[in-house]
Amino acid sequence: MDFDVIVLGAGIVGVSSALHLQDRGRSVALVDRRGPGEETSFGNAGLIESSSIVPYGFPRRLRTLLRYARNQSTDLYWDYRALPAFAAWLGRFWWESSPERLAVAARDMLPLIRASVTEHDALIARAGLGRLAHDGGWIEAFRTQSELGHQTKVAESAVREHGLRVQPLDAPALRAKEPGIGAGFCGALHWQDPKSISDPGALTKGYARLFEQAGGTLLNGDATTLRVRGAAWAVQTNSGEISAKEVVVALGPWSDTVFAPLGYHIPLRAKRGYHMHYRPTGTVLSVPVVDTEEGYVIAPMRGGLRLTTGVEIARREAAPTAIQLERAERIAKPAFGLGERLDDAPWLGLRPCTPDMRPVIGRAPRHRGLWFAFGHNHHGLTLGPVSGRLLAEMMTGAAPFIDVRPFRPERFR
Question: Start and end of every FAD dependent oxidoreductase domain (predicted)?
Answer without folding.
Answer: 4-394
